[in-house]
Amino acid sequence: LLHPDQVVLTEKLAIKYFGSAANAMGKDLLLDGEFPVTVAGVADNPPVNSHIQFDLLMAFALLKKKATEQWQFDIDNFWVGGWPRTYVKLGDPAKWKQSEEEINKIAARFSEKEWKENKMSYRYHLQPMKDIHLRSHLRYDAANNGSLARVKVFTIVGIIVLLLACINYINLTTAGAVKRAKETSVRKVVGATRIQLVRQFFLETLMVSLIAVLLGIGLIYALLPLFSQWVGQPYELNLSLTGVLLIAGFVLSIAAIAGIYPAAILSSFNPAISLKGNFSLSRRGNIIRKSLVVFQFTISIGLVAALIIISRQMDYIKNKSLGFNGNAVIEVPFFGEKVVVEQYSSLRNRLLESPYILNVSKHSQNVVGGLGNGWTTTENLKGEEISTSLYSLAVDTTFFSTYDMKLSAGRFFSRDFPTDSTKAVLVNEAAVRTFGWVKPENAIGKRFGKGDNTQYVIGVVKDFNFESLHKPVEALLINYAKSGSILSLKIDTRHTDEALNHLKKVWATAAPDLPLQYAFVDDKINQQYGNESKMQGVFYGFAGLSLLIACLGLFGLSIYVVERKIKEIGIRKVLGASVPGIINLLSKDFLKLVLISVLIATPLSWFLMNEWLKDFAYRITIDGWVFMIAGWIAIFIALFTISFQAIKAAIANPVKSLRTE
User: Fold this and answer.
1) Other C-beta atoms within 10 Å of 307: how many?
2) What pTM did the predictor assign?
3) 352, 436, 498, 598: which has the highest count of C-beta atoms within 10 A?
4) Dist. CA 138–CA 64, nearest whole Å
């Protein structure tokens, strides 16, 4: 961009307007209907996971010209705002903190007079580029931010699920050790050392792990596109040299975790005892296996409880009153264009000709997640002047009825009061609390601004959530909108298509050169919680997978227990034991393990989920019944898993089990 009248398009935009990137070069465009520019280059489309998203790049000099001519605003002397984002390339990145101090000294030198007059100050902070994606959660942050906490949660849960699978392997291998006791003893008799036996069993585990990883990589390649589409983020499996080394280390680690203990057990058999057929696993080994089962079900119960809590919180968010009704409202941005501003009254009247468009209003910014803030002065309850930064929104007289907002005190803007357009403001209840006015009635008549810019509070609006429910409602100053940038249409949702068709028809004649864009406010509200909804879905998968793994482990262990007690069961049946009695005999020990898991999982999952809920300003309380349900689910699944083997053993012919006696 060597000249102010040059722009760079993305490949996507070049194809949209000119058919191809090559055809776009040197072509002329008209920005905002009055700024002629020439396409000087075409850039690759920015990656979806980048926080720098654009369709068109223009010279900053053109923005300065537009600001001066249209808004009478000198950007070069704007030292008290957080817009636009500024990128700084440092000579020595290690000294970025020192550079931050130098920037603030310069800002203070140029703004000292203004800061003193308004009793305010700004401080600028540098942020390393690598911290933006996961460690940045600022008020006007870049798009496509991730959550470091969420990454940690899913990493931990993934590791836990992997550990559950390793525990299954350990349990099933050691439980089946009796069947391999004679094989191991024969090897020892013919000269095999313990180290050789450990190596053999470790290599067996390594082969199983390697096959599992290869199958897993295949599944990832098959399912990753679907997963990326579902979560709305691009993911790819990078099999670079580093990636291959990581996978190799991963396979060795899993083999070590899952293979060393079974190998040590299998290699420790006494040939003299095991070859006689009198071998049984030690009491210590049984305790270890039971402890591992408890660990598995503790994790599974915790995940089920977490899933219930996440679902309840999401339902609470979806159903909580936000202080306004956006269910039947469409926002139509017009960016302050003169063609709309100058004919707003007639445009509004033409839109209202449709019986399916119930109201039309204009305002300065998106009601949900789009409000800006600025500095102003006001007075506290004692009349003392204070300087503060607060959110701001400009609206017309019909805005509050469009969104069904309510008053706490005073009145709304009205055409019956001509001075409302210049001298009146409204605030929300949060502003009353912030400035110490105690009651909404005390806010009426309070001053904002100075000199010719002085305005007075005429009303207090009940709090409404203009940010997500992660944040509490903050102080808001509402001015009268003389021009606006967005239209809001309240429609009859039973006739949405008819209302939209009328909007398109009116827009095509009123502003033919301004592309019509619109969005439903309730969709914007739901988009604020997209990550939580995806997290809920992922937790469904993790919880189901962990329960399945735990049940497979329990199923394998129940097979081992039944085989070990097969003669005891036969004797009991001969002596008159009933089928329910034998089922109870085989099930009660396992149910004790599940109950112990419930007792351990309850406080752990309560603590962890309470920490997660702290991320929401508005949240549910965690009730005890959540853990009762999670426990009953685990008990039911455990009973179902065990009962198959228990019933099979209980109805078996005792003659077969006692034949060798």
Assistant:
1) 20
2) 0.73
3) 598
4) 26
